[in-house]
Amino acid sequence: NVSGCFECCIKCLGGVPYASLVATILCFSGVALFCGCGHVALGGTLSIIGNHFSQTPSDHALLAEVVQLMQYIIYGIASFFFLYGIILLAEGFYTTSAVKELHSEFKTTACGRCISGMFVFLTYVLGVAWLGVFGFSAVPVFLFYNMWSTCEALNSPLTNATASLDVICVDMRQYGIIPWNANPGKACGSTLGDICKTNEFYLSYHLFIVACAGAGATVIALLIYMMATTYNYAVLKFKSREDCCTKF
């Protein structure tokens, strides 16, 4: 009947691990933004370097290899977090009272608590690692922002009136991206202004910003996972004899 169906739905909703569900959605979104935008932005950056700052392919060959390696790493990160997010969400479901109500004889075991503890440890490690990734993803944003702000200075009426535009430059060699013998290595004046007007620069700059935001969202998702898995493990460990489960 309708009443029984309604009660069943309420019972199922009461056993949903909402914290893990929100963290999974946030994690998937953040990783997708970081990996997708980061992959395209890296390719655009390599194109900008090759076309305007290092016209000899051998001068930026190492950079090309590093970019290709990072793109492969991005593929691995996306695959890993897709699986890990699903596993953590499943672990959240199976440590809710929904399991207890569906299986009245459900009891935690030492093996189950050990697996939950392993997830707690692994999530903490991934959280610390992603803090590093978040910081690293801010580096290209900073570099592009410096370049963009220099281009804005070129267009400033005050600059045009008081200084020669050719003395305003961006030198990529000082960041260690390309070697000091790269030719031309830097862009000045109108040449720099033309670079900033290209679609590659505009797209890469904004994609790096979005990728950085995605890394930040992933850090937040992992913090939520940390709280959820820690709470789940604590309840399973200290109340296992009472057959008590969590709804977190």
Give a verbal description of the structure.
- The chain is mostly helical.
- 76% of the residues lie in helices and 2% in strands.
- It is built from 8 helices and 2 strands, in the order H-H-H-H-H-H-E-E-H-H.
- It has a two-stranded antiparallel ribbon with strand order 1-2.
- The longest helix is centred in the middle third of the chain and has 45 residues, at 110-154.
- The protein starts with a helix and ends in a 10-residue tail after the last helix.
- The model is unreliable at 101-105 (pLDDT under 50).
- It comes from Erpetoichthys calabaricus.
- It is found in: Membrane.
- Keywords: Membrane, Transmembrane, Transmembrane helix.
Number of distinct beta strands: 2
- How much helix, percentage-wise, in residues? over 70%
Biggest sheet strand line-up: 1-2
Question: In terms of per-residue confidence, which ranges show pLDDT below 50 for 5 or more consecutive residues?
Answer: 101-105
The number of helical runs is 8
The separation of the N and C termini measures: 30 Å
Provide key terms for this protein.
mainly alpha; elongated; 248 residues
List the helices and strands and how they pair.
Layout: H1 2-14, H2 18-53, H3 61-94, H4 97-102, H5 110-154, H6 157-162, E1 169-171, E2 186-188, H7 189-196, H8 199-238
Antiparallel strand pairs: 1-2
Helix pairs in contact: 2-3, 2-8, 5-7, 5-8
Keywords: Membrane, Transmembrane, Transmembrane helix
Protein name: Glycoprotein M6Ba
GO molecular function: structural constituent of myelin sheath
Write a brief caption for the model.
The chain contains eight helices and two strands; from the N terminus they run H-H-H-H-H-H-E-E-H-H. With 248 residues, it is mostly helical.
